[in-house]
Amino acid sequence: MARVNPRMLIDGGGDYTDGSGTVTAPKTSAQALQELQDSVTAGKKFVQSKNVEIATIALEQAVNTGDKAGAAEAAKAVAKAQGGSAAVQAANAISVLQAATPEPTLTAAQVARGDEIKWVGGVNGSWQVIKGTNVTQTSVQNPIVNPIVNPVVNPVVDTSNIQTTDPAVLSLIQSLQNQIAALSAGNQQAAINQKAAEEAAKKEKAESAIAVLTDRFSRYGLASLVPKIKELAIGGASEATITLQLQETDEYRQRFRANQDRIKKGLRVLDPGDYLGLEDDYRQILRAYGLKQFDNDDYVTQFISNDISTTELSNRVATAVQRVQNADPAILTTLRSFYGISDNDLVAYVLDPNQQFQKIERQVAAAEIGAAAKLQGINAGVTVSEQLAAQGVTKAQAQKGYATIADILPTAEKLSDIYGKTLDEYRLGEAEQEVFNTLASAQRKRQKLVQTEIAAFSGASGLGKSSLTSQLGGTY
To answer: Which H/E stretch holds residue 476?
Structure first.
């Protein structure tokens, strides 16, 4: 196996041979370092060239599009990529910009006059034609052209002071006049086209607003506002502006008049969508129970004004139909007697949003209790009936309770008449307390009267309990 001389590694040696062939010596550390430095230098040059290339492309694009500010910045970027001091970079930026910007071409007349082309303005400059003095200056009135606001119709070039007969100069003047005339005509047409486009856009916007708002306000039941919508839209008002103005009309306020009442009561103003949704819900509830006579704007408006929920309206309608309209005539008679309500107003009274529903429910319940008492020949009265209703006594409980009272009261009152001077009396009030309130003291009063009667009969005639029971109808 061939061996490497250590001195060759230190001194940079080179190739060596041991008779069997040539072997290349390994690189020294100095060689490796040099190669690394060369690689870094090459990389920097590559990056620099790419930076110059990118900035140059940006410069060309800016020059082609007439972007002077962009061209100046791109020229500075090229100079910076090329390197050098600040002064060198500033000079290079101008040179790069000059090279990228096409120079204007002098006409024969300009050459004859001695005009020159010079770069003016540094890195933010441009090529300028500097007039010479070989011929007398012509007096030219430069037209002011504004293609949008005031396009020039008849550009004027004053040639009265021209003191040359040079055909080239005269040709140049004529050419300028032709160019100005063509530019003026073009500006006029551009202004006409732009105005036509603006009118078309305005018309399209107005037609869109008219279509949208006509559909919307027709659904509100405000088709009468369509002419106003068209007038405002054609006048240039936006959809939002038209909507706001229509909300100030008498028609709109009348249509959503419940909102005015809600404001006075401190309630939230409903937007048209919520308002219409509530109207539909109310009407469906009324129609479901066959109360079409109340399916009108006046009632619906009252419900919205008083913030009646659909749940409350459903309960009111159910009460009006099931417990009033379809109730036993005796209940209706009692309701009218208790509260002075006429026949035609019974259902309306229950649906009246100005009346608290809890109060109406108690009154209907009181009428049911009073009617149950009358069915047994008992006059309960409005006060007691309302007290029992407030306690939660139902119609069925009242019917059962007054049936019981009708059984025990006649005997208890008869005994009260006999023993009332010595014992507590038992009248209707005590009976109602015993039956509906399970009052023990009322029950004891009745039992005491019965026991006293039994004792009296037993002592006076020898009659037993069974005999008294048959005479009193078996009631204790």
So the answer is: none
What's the domain count of the chain?
2
Q: What angle do the packed helices 167-219 and 226-234 form, to 10 degrees?
A: 160
Domain end marker among 85, 100, 115? 100
What's the gap between Cα 360 and its chain centre? 39
Query: How many angstroms separate the Cα of 35 from the Cα of each of 8, 9, 459, 466?
Result: 20, 17, 147, 139
Task: Let me know: does 353 contact 307? Beta carbons within 8 Å.
Answer: no
Query: Would residue 200 count as lying in a domain?
Result: no
CA-nearest of 366, 357, 360 to 331 is 366
* pLDDT digits 0-9 by tens, 403-454: 999 999 998 889 988 887 888 889 998 999 889 988 888 889 888 988 998 8
Q: How many residues does the chain have?
A: 476
Share the mean pLDDT of the chain: 82
What average pLDDT does this structure show over 323-328? 86
What is the C-alpha to C-alpha distance for residues 13 and 8, in angstroms, rounded to an integer? Answer: 4
| Domain contains 69 | yes
Q: Would the pTM count as exceeding 0.85?
A: no
- Given 50, 85, 100, the domain boundary residue is 100
Mean of pLDDT values over 178-185: 77
Task: Give me the amino acid identity at 155.
Answer: P
CA distance 430 to 440: 10
Place of tokens 């159910």: 318
**Distance between CA 461 and CA 457 in Å, rounded?**
6
Residue 180 falls inside a structural domain = no
pLDDT exceeds cutoff 70 at 229 = yes
Question: Is position 387 within any domain?
Answer: no
Question: Which domain does 456 fall in, by range?
Answer: 394-476
